[in-house]
## 1
Amino acid sequence: MKQILKGAGIFALAMAAAGTAAANKADDTLNVAFSKELENVDSYFNSAREGVIMQRSIWDGLVYRDPYTGEYKGNLATDWNWVDDKTLEFNLRQGVTFHNGEPFDADDVVATVNWVADEKNGVKTQRNVNWMESAEKIDQFKVRIHLKAPFPAAIEYLAGPVSIYPNEYYAKVGPTGMGLNPVGTGPYKVVSVEPGKHFVLEKYENYHKDSPKGQANIGRLDIRTIPDFNTQAAELFSGGLDWVWQVPPDQAESLAAMGEFTVANESTMRIGYLQFDAAGRSGENNPFTNKLVRQAISHAIDREAIVASMLKGKSRVVNSACFPSQFGCDQDVTVYDYNPEKAKQLLAEAGYPDGLEIDFYAYRDREYAEAMLGYLEAVGIKSNFKLLQYSALRELSMKGEVSMSFQTWGSYSINDASAIVSQYFKLGSLDSAQDEQIKEWLDVADSSVDSDERKEYYSKALKRIAEEAYWLPLFSYNSNYVFTKDLEYAPTTDAIPRFFQMSWK
Amino acid sequence: MLVYTLKRLGLALLVTLAVSMLSFALLYLSGDPAAAIAGETANADDIEAVRIYYGFDRPWVVQYGEWMFNAIRGDFGTSYYFKLPVSQLVADRLSVTMLLGLCGISFALLTAVPLGVAAAVRPNSIIDRIALFLSVMGQAMPSFWFGLVLIVLFSIKLRLLPPSGSDNWQNFVMPTIVLGYYAMPAIMRLTRAGMLDVLGADYVRTARAKGAGEFRVMFKHALRNAIIPVVSLAAVQMGFMLGGSIVVESIFALHGAGYLAWESIGRNDLPTVQALILVFSMFYIVFTFLSDLLNAWLDPRMRVG
């Protein structure tokens, strides 16, 4: 009997403990799951989506772009102007303090910019910072940022990945210390970090009143890394989680059908595309150097069907080599409709009446790639499918050894076409087209401060990319968000969940 | 016994050295770490800068020598991604894995050995059939599925145990069962086979003939001999649990060393992978070494070999 009682005691204890794991609206804590480990919270030293999410909550930039209207508003700066096409001047906001009490002024901006712009300090995503030359203090609340070359997308970057760090603290602790004890001016301050595993954030009570981000509503964020979606779902059901995202389409559908949670879907800036070795770097007899073969493949794949049956949600077929909301992303380009007969005919014209055999590389979304293999097979193209790790495929691509690959690009949520076309069509090692005409046009578009001129030249480049079928843009991605019905939240197309915009109903 | 121990120890050290060298060479061949570290937006110049910054441009023998020299002094370098010392990172993650491994192997031994003995005492009885059924199930069920079944039952239906995390002992109940159940069938079948073998041996008949009690015959005479191969098997299973619990760690979000290894391989975090391979191989080596010693203690004949 004693034994049974003892057993019952453990039983009750387990029940009590399982109960305490669940916390939500009642104690003002939002329990969140990440699927991937965020190794270092210092936003300049990770390139993960999870890192961007943390960055927007913990730190502020000089500028803020309203994700719903697209309008730029002053955040740590109150206003700015172009002194010339390589110099930006900012008036800084007064009375802002960092989470550790350090007051914010020009010294923080100058120290941050000068440090991150120096290549030797090894900021992970160089593209986010390498357009800046240096920063200069004019007075305590006025700074100038000097650019290496004219860079019209500067404001977009300053509103995105460039956050301002406290100069004294960062000089002392560096990226390792910042990763373990992050300090910023943002709406949430960090309470604890277990690298890769668990992050706890709390509303910053002294957050500056006039911030365009607004004040945080939810008191506490408890973020855990749970790699397996099924486990995340179990946590949702047992009350251990309130908010998850990147939920696979099928699971999102069944969760929506159950009606216990809010299921929201929003497009992301990531697009998928097929990249062809039009320049013939992978071998001289490469069929992809023939425009007709590239066009044949473009007609062979039913992108609408893949979107409708596999990606679902707000995903759309894209025809231009960029995400439609990006500045300069002209939609008026050649469209390749699904037409297998025409594909066969083009192949025959190209000298492959009996079809051909190709290497098909991919690094993610095996099921989408396999659907495409099926469509190619139907018009007589046999593929040797090769699924590689991302870094391995990238290495091969840089060496020019990849004839055709299924790639994706998220533009780092930068809402400007330069973040994708200029990344891949300016004769770099990842440029499989090596078209000098396109590079010339992109050079104009990338450096002009006249927005009409920029649009005109991006349009020229995008039209030629489509016309030549250098890429076959496939579709935009989407993300499913599943959260408790107590939560008020509208996802944004840049796929950056902003915790400070969430509130309890 | 001393000579035997020293000989085994020397062999273990040589194996460790060989494993570290081989894994270093394989990692070196597996892909360009500079491209992985430089990230998505890097161009060829950025990657070259990273290559020089981390010293990947040097011959691998030089890189290995440097790594070995530091590793001997306990310095495994800094993780490219966490920006933390690898030794600190690995120690943090290993504590979870070791706890899980110990619980798992204990669970397996505590269930498998009694079941195996019971099955051997009454071969083809109902107990034997049940034991066989359990072992076939354990072998056939993939652990990711079994784990999810447990989660549905204990976390969602009964609300007794938390589905994920590693904060309380409750978090370890389901992972222990899943991990232990996978190792159980082999141990049980081997115990049963060993016991059947031994129970028919002359010395058991002699023991019975001289009037020893059944309990004494079973545990003093029979099990001590039947258990020898089980000890070796359990050692290998334990090594496997410490290095190979990736699936279980991932399902229950335990963040142990296995999952860390899996993630680090994906992102080419060489210092972390290298340290983990060394630690995992050390586990196998240490456990095999210990099981050899234990067997030599159980069976004096082995000390000669």
Note: Chain A has 16 helices and 18 strands.
## 2
Amino acid sequence: MTITTIPPTPLHHGHRVLMKGNEAMAEAAIRAGCDAYFGYPITPQAELLEWMARRMPEESRPFVQAESELGAITMALGAAATGARVLVSSSSPGISLMAEAMSYMAGAEIPMVLVNVMRGGPGLGGIGPSQADYFQATKGHGHGDYRVPVLAPSSIGEAMALMADAFELAEKYRTPVFILADGTLGQAMEPVELHFREPPRLAADWALTGADGRPPRVVKSMHLEPEDLEVHNRHLQAKFAEITAREVRWAGENLDGAELVIVAYGTAARVARTAIARARDDALRVGLFRPITLWPFPSAALAEVAARARGVLVVELSAGQMVEDVRLAIEGRTPVAFEGRTGGMVPTPGEVLDALRRLRGTTAGDAAEPTKEARP
Amino acid sequence: MTTDTPAGARVIFQRPELLADRSTHYCPGCGHGVVHRLIAEVLGELGLGARTIAVAPVGCAVFAYDYIGVDFVEAPHGRAPAVATGIRRVRPDAFVLTYQGDGDLAAIGTAEIIHAAGRGELLTAVFVNNGIYGMTGGQMAPTTLLGQRSTSSPGGREAAFHGYPIPMTEMLAIMPGVAYAARGSVADAPAIGRTKQYLRRACEIQLEGRGFAIVEVISNCPVGWGMTPTESMERLREVVAKEYRPGVIVDRTKEA
């Protein structure tokens, strides 16, 4: 068996090319100035690692295939502690192993970007596309009181753009940042217009560079005295509050005059878009509210949008996770329905359309009348 | 530190510049302070203080950064060699040192140390083996000797029940990426002197770009062993050193 290597492809800014999501994210990271990549093979993100294995040495930058996801993410922790711009990628079971170091990095305020190309779970689960790690990404991963920004692209082009944004956020706030993709985004190919961006480097007056002409620095998360740890945690919480106030992102489509609103991110939003187009045949006006930051969740914007609609349908590739944040945002003021598939199955536009029809049936003529006055 | 030296006298012993002028949190008689001092001496003598990035473990020695005056990052439990690999790869000019205990290196961090050694990472690994989990209250470690009592092997370690002690440094020494592996001891002044030579050689090997270097230092834990400091040193010399024999285990820089 001969192993053929992929020929070098000149990828020029502004060109339109057909690219696989995993490879596009990898190249976007390189063009965003990623100094080092550490990974471990896992489906459905392996092409990201393979792209880095070929491209990082071409750029004379470090690439290490680690002994495990634990190894990969702690290599990233070490490299990033010196101020390097570092990318790590994995898929769901690997992310569970990386949760340990995510907690350490959040505590020690070490910037890093981690891509999760989600697959179906729990356990080893399957390798089909999934959004079953929403809770993990937005509510926790590791132990302790912390949050990390979670960016959710819904196209390969958007995934490329968000890569540079993710590094920028990570360094601005000294925090790990998640890019939450799914198996479809990682594996599919689609035409993308190449837009590369390398964020400017910030002065890292905390990074470990050797105590040459300055006092030694320590990058750590341990504060054994409860008084000290509480002070540190208050500092972290203030940072999370600032991120929540400033970094919320979402996109709306056809929201003006929409009777019903679908809330969906990533691949689920793509399915929803098709269903929304088909709903026009039913004379059903449906808008799309697509969170781009899953944390911070666009709660205030969604509450405003939902107040003008008769009902909200949440579509996910899960048994229903983001729907909890949607309900928290809406606080019962508008009916919320859910449509989801799990295990690597993707809801069809027809299934979503049926769910829209059911929602219209249950909400027609109910107490949503007064909100009509608020419509523009 | 200032030293007013009377005329005709000369300083033959003083605190190394890279060792903090403060008491440690270690229990009375603990060997960690000795190892810290040796590291501070060697880094100072080799002029490495300003370019060292060290990795602290989880365990009693997590506070190494409070005593050794170089840049430090804290690793998750057992992951110091992986953290150090990341530093090494992005900072080729840095001197990278890891400090781990036996629970950290020989239990939870087995994969990380073996693969860092397998890759031949240019790292200097210091492995302090006192055969017990000190910080959490004296539980059995992978290196705990057969028959040794601990809070999690209260009747003494039995091979049939607990398994055998793991000779990590000998295991690492067979790997081609390991340029140097040695075992020192803090049992007495001659042993400490030899340990310093091993540490110095393990640092020079990194500077020469020869490969991975590890120095295990067998040490004591008077509190965890339930002994006075003097008794613990006696046990280190008479019992532990018979099982974990000090000396150079491999030096591939000489074979080459």
Note: The longest helix of chain B spans residues 189-207.
